[in-house]
Prior knowledge:
13 strands, magnesium (chains A, B, C, D), EC 2.7.1.11 (chains A, B, C, D), homotetramer, Rossmann fold, fructose-6-phosphate binding (chains A, B, C, D), 7-stranded mixed beta sheet, 2 domains, alpha/beta
Amino acid sequence: MHIGILTGGGDCPGLNAVIRAVTLALINECGARVTGIERGFLGLLTRSVRPLGLREVQGILAQGGTILGTHNRCDPFHYFGADGADCSAQALAFARELGLDGLVVIGGDGTMSIAHRFEPLGLPVVGVPKTIDNDLAHTDRTFGFDSAVAVVAEALDRLETTARSHGRVMIAETMGRYAGWIALEGGMAGGADMILLPELPFSVEAVARLCAEREAGDGCTLICIAEGARAAGRELTVRATLADSPDPIRLGGVGQWLQQQLQPLLSSEVRTTLLGHVQRGGSPTPYDRVLATRFGYHAAQLVRRGEWGRMVTLHGEDCASVPLSEVAGKSRNVPLDHPLLAVARGLGVSLGEAHR
Amino acid sequence: MHIGILTGGGDCPGLNAVIRAVTLALINECGARVTGIERGFLGLLTRSVRPLGLREVQGILAQGGTILGTHNRCDPFHYFGADGADCSAQALAFARELGLDGLVVIGGDGTMSIAHRFEPLGLPVVGVPKTIDNDLAHTDRTFGFDSAVAVVAEALDRLETTARSHGRVMIAETMGRYAGWIALEGGMAGGADMILLPELPFSVEAVARLCAEREAGDGCTLICIAEGARAAGRELTVRATLADSPDPIRLGGVGQWLQQQLQPLLSSEVRTTLLGHVQRGGSPTPYDRVLATRFGYHAAQLVRRGEWGRMVTLHGEDCASVPLSEVAGKSRNVPLDHPLLAVARGLGVSLGEAHR
Amino acid sequence: MHIGILTGGGDCPGLNAVIRAVTLALINECGARVTGIERGFLGLLTRSVRPLGLREVQGILAQGGTILGTHNRCDPFHYFGADGADCSAQALAFARELGLDGLVVIGGDGTMSIAHRFEPLGLPVVGVPKTIDNDLAHTDRTFGFDSAVAVVAEALDRLETTARSHGRVMIAETMGRYAGWIALEGGMAGGADMILLPELPFSVEAVARLCAEREAGDGCTLICIAEGARAAGRELTVRATLADSPDPIRLGGVGQWLQQQLQPLLSSEVRTTLLGHVQRGGSPTPYDRVLATRFGYHAAQLVRRGEWGRMVTLHGEDCASVPLSEVAGKSRNVPLDHPLLAVARGLGVSLGEAHR
Amino acid sequence: MHIGILTGGGDCPGLNAVIRAVTLALINECGARVTGIERGFLGLLTRSVRPLGLREVQGILAQGGTILGTHNRCDPFHYFGADGADCSAQALAFARELGLDGLVVIGGDGTMSIAHRFEPLGLPVVGVPKTIDNDLAHTDRTFGFDSAVAVVAEALDRLETTARSHGRVMIAETMGRYAGWIALEGGMAGGADMILLPELPFSVEAVARLCAEREAGDGCTLICIAEGARAAGRELTVRATLADSPDPIRLGGVGQWLQQQLQPLLSSEVRTTLLGHVQRGGSPTPYDRVLATRFGYHAAQLVRRGEWGRMVTLHGEDCASVPLSEVAGKSRNVPLDHPLLAVARGLGVSLGEAHR
């Protein structure tokens, strides 16, 4: 048996742990030959591959990133060659030339969709879900999320000392364009006073009122805001035009926008930190290393049992799988009745709602 | 409503997060008065209590230990006063004097048993489970466990560089007298080559053989062993007598014992690290902060709804509860068919078994 | 003897370690009474003080921030009361009312200047230098700097995995408006490929050329840039006007500016992270805890020996002091012949210079 | 020019940073060819070498251990071949066969002595000092020390929460057989209440008295003890004989010994943690990465300038060097008048002295 592995989409702590687990399990349990495909599906077009053996995956468990490289946007079905045809046939031909019996694809929603299209063309696939946003419909948790939450919590720990020493309002903007999981769990773990999510439009007035109340009580305010959070009925994009260009531009993120809204209403200083890519790089937490290892092992079991066309999932403490056909385009936002929202409110953490 | 809180048993990261969540939720949602009882049940005898308000629990979320103090062995039913009677009546009288309507008790198996005996005497109780060992029968996870696993994984990361640089066998002994969860998850997260658990007696010969094989291949070996692990059919206690005392004494832990067994059989140097109490102290991981917060909030809900006599649990992603009467004396070992054992074997991690 | 302590200026890891050391040493060695003044010199106007004893400073060694609070801009010589006179007399009167024999002032350049003006008015002062920027003229190192460098290095570690996995250019903007010490040491510790400092104007063309070369060699580029770095002969401020306001605004920092310059010249994606306030909050590194403790102890010695009007310094491994009169307004940039610049160049780390 | 690099002696965080800096600087500045010799001087006997280029040293800056491997005891002048002659000639012959113009040797006292003996035989050497103990006579600091101190401080942070929650005496035993630097700086950084050093024999009675006083005041005690610390006039080694062997054995370390002495005298529980090898493994702190990089670069400069027979040193903020002939056998203990001892005493940290 000869199996290819590739990683697609954005960086995520735990990718190497999956690669290691898939490789070790396939070699140890199936005697398989394993080949790494570089930079996602792009490697099938550029013919960039390398063998993966025990030695190649040694010591990578705790390493961030992916030893195979990744690519955000390479979809062979949307790349077109000189003859006007898309490049999927070329990718497929190269997979056949390698003699691949199947592919283990580690990636997010987009990567899974591409993988799913190769199936009917004769390249069987097993998927491993990857998203630091934890917003996949069919699985309780995804690896990388715990690591991102840990980065946010550590940043809030640091910002809190400054906020308290100065009596300031500190805003930390986290990842999460559509789903607020990182901001919610990171904010709760970091002791935020206010958590603003994409799922729950906030009221600038309510936010300002709370900051002012805390200010009056000699306190500081720590706000954890997801990049996708929005004020109800307000447009975020401050239209700006550069002196030397007529095109309007985007001005920082929602954190900076909120700072601009709040500052005139408060006497405390307001400061914003944009956490950015540090949330998706670096060594995975031990929790994520174990989860990624379990996902990788489970993917190898699906391969071993010939259960192609499925993606690994987690339910409670157990790994399971779902058909790839059910995966595409389904994301999981924070439901408005999620228990952790009740916990937040019960502890006096504001969600920026107008009427509370 | 006036509620007391106490923490009993050994230290565990996340205790303060529970105290904070219980206190905030009881104050915010029930307008309750909250009193902290110091040093576990001992505080009911020594009359050591203090009020807990918003200010008292501010900033303790990320702190290790317990601001209330704890005590390993104080059981009022087994302390006897001058009059020959046990001290439970005295404890109860003090609780009445305080006007407590109930008690939130955070502790392990022993603490829950004591709490349960106060119930029929008219002091209603809600329990929050605490054990870094993760060996409670009725809950998937307990707070503190993730933090202990993280300490083990970080130690293995450090030991691995030395093991590899010197071509050594490094043994790390973790907590876990009866259950091997910490060694298993910590070992998997830290990339151990061998994991030895209380649940699965190991063969010294098998361990030595694997070390020798790796030695021959220019490799090093990282062994993660739970303090309760034992070699099949072998007695651990090397009987030693001191020059100035005829009593036999105990010689270090099982890690050091294993080192003594292995060293004569190998040419590599063997070294042992006993991780000890660093596994149960210090700031909780973000995961544990969220879990402990959820446990504390849920305990406050049980109080609010008058569901006394129950202990909080976690099933999958949801908090629930069980009657205290079902809790006592039930622990949860690593079952021999646990998926993570299969993962370990599949990845070539040895469990020290004789015939594999 | 009755001594006051205050902390002024921005937050900095290690402030609490200084407060603790000063307090413990004054109490243990001089039997002094110690009073904390809250929020810098502001506390002398608002009459906000609190006693500091052994109990108050227990457990604060490793805590970030300052338990006394701080204030960025309160200068009693520039605050004017209802009578038109500045508030220095009011501050002085309150210090006399408290019966203070002297003040230990922990702060930066601005705080030292204010402190120095109180001296001739009869309020003797000892200073402890504080700046995470490490840019003080009279001392080799200041506490907080090592902690800031550690935050930068950890962020670069994380960004590097993403940069390498995607083949990207990652820009990390650090603190350092005038002096590049944080970017230089943080960049060297984090393995940056390029370090851009305020002291050494860079060439956008040189930067782009190097990125392109690395891109061609399948590599990624990690750029560590101080907020005060500037391109030679180029104006940073992209003038922008908001749709609803005619005033030109500032657009992000130099990191984002550089990204805008580089992106059109490269095929790799360029991404920027603005580290911000996480660099000055949080628990100090062990190195900073020891240094801050030594500074605090040395300040107490100056008080004990009556050596007023001096600021603590570090030379090599030894603490010393200089007159406050020599301190004001003298900062220490990275000299262009600093050995670490030679190390950087020798290791192939680019400093963005045009002709290398 | 063709230069060999080797690492000898025990593991130490920062070795890879030195290897990287030496390699990059020799290649970039001298166009040299660089060869890594594996497992210390042993590699010269086993003919185990490998080329070091830009690619080989990429990404190793932050890695613990040494990519070249090391060996504790291989001294070619003390290995004897079949012909009865020592193996130094064999090592030398292989170095000539490789065409080495010189050797950069990274190691401790023992490694430097061996290196020094090769010099008159025609193999010129430059040395880079390595000891986590920081006890070298000619240099202010050595890399790896800051990392060891950080491990100790973090462990004390963790142990402190448990000590305080239980009202316990916690003993942490650190490395430092002859010199107490790690215990001293680690203890100060971790807020130890008592620090016991090899340089200053302690009094068990004084230690017990202080613990009892703190116990009486409801406090806990955190003791940081170097492995080489000894009680004045007391023999450490409890002679024990095993049931099945007549030979006396050693019983744990001085930490466990102290626990046995203290426990009968106190009502608090006493617990010991033996930090062990985690102190010398793992990723170096940012401080150590910069220091190791500077040492490595400076070694390359000595090679470039032909200043053979010297070892790199640090004085204050500057790198310098001393002749290897002056290095051998000179170690640097904590002098009894060291400023940090005065700081400790001034802050009320006990050094276990009888008459204080």
